[in-house]
Structure prediction request, 153 residues.
Amino acid sequence: MCFTIPVDGQPATTLSLPPHMVSRDDVVIACGSVQPQIAIIGSGFAGLLLGIKLKQAGIESFTIYEKADRLGGTWRDNVYPGAACDVPAHLYSYSFEPKADWTKKYAEQAEILGYLEHCAVKYGLLPHLRFGVEIAEAKFDHCLLYTSPSPRD
Prediction:
């Protein structure tokens, strides 16, 4: 086995992924199959966006791992009084899922979290989410392949 991710720091609950992996940032892709197996770490804006784009590309073989019991990343975690985005809210949404009815110019935490939850439901991400799973570390060995995009000339 070439790649393992100890879940919640417990070796007994190690999540093993197949060999011949490609790793880019916090996404792991298993190569050599018709459908790659993809692990997305976190369910904030970026993790949900990747899930949506994979589905739009016809790829269903992915899992979004979230250490908390609910999606939302920063917008789930930061519930202090006055938590809000620092850019106009209409800029703080996916280009393919604009929200024209933000209640304030600088949307507050609960409304942004609601937007993320709406997107997860609308784009069918709920079956791909695994809550309460913290990825503690990832270990690679020589059988793994790492590639990075080359700049376009």
